Amino acid sequence: MLAAFLDDIREGDMIAPRRMAERLRLPMTRLSRLAHLNRNTMTTHPGSPAVQAKLGEIARIIARAADLAGDEGKAIIWFKHQPLPGFGKTAEELVEDGHADVVIEDLDRMAAGVYS
Questions:
Q1: What confidence tier does 2 reach under pLDDT thresholds 50, 70, 90?
Q2: From what superkingdom does this record's organism come (predicted)?
């Protein structure tokens, strides 16, 4: 399941922006805002280190959440709709605000059995 998500968003050795947008059920413009990337840069230079790093952050969050939830669909719903305790924002909103690190730390705490 986890590997399926990562495999489905890849083209060769890189994360494909369009595939990621499709799996997350987001328009490309929304994904570009989440990743803090220009939409044109994301589509014309998908293999650039900056694009891959930003998409990689989102992919790690979804993959980790899917691992914890046991289901990719639940992880995507969590990402989009479930506010993180103590933050009052969803993981998607925190990522858009530039706080992917906070989401990853929260997932790490959940994995360790510590719930906020």
A1: low
A2: Bacteria
